[in-house]
Amino acid sequence: xxxxxxxxxxxxxxxxxxxxxxxxxxxxxxxxxxxxxxxxxxxxxxxxxxxxxxxxxxxxxxxxxxxxxxxxxxxxxxxxxxxxxxxxxxxxxxxxxxxxxxxxxxxxxxxxxxxxxxxxxx
Length: 122
Known about the structure:
Elements (H helix, E strand, L loop, with lengths): L1 H32 L1 H24 L15 H48 L1
């Protein structure tokens, strides 16, 4: 019975690896065909890497006394802190983008078009 479970798990791992490679392959193929989108994608990925680096530099490697029994290393503590700080930065960015789009973008466009119409009527 254990051998059937191992075969099923290995087959599942193989299918997941194939799906991941296929998804990455189609992404690379699409980037090669459309270079404008590739530039935008690479800039976005670069921005995400910058956020990761900033979060890593801000993260502390201090280990709480209660976690020492779990044999947590300073490196692990820093990686967890980096993940949390990255989550906070991306969450604040997403909320800011939503607030800008919903609250500020439309009124700013109305004010801008009003000012342009006043300027052109002179």
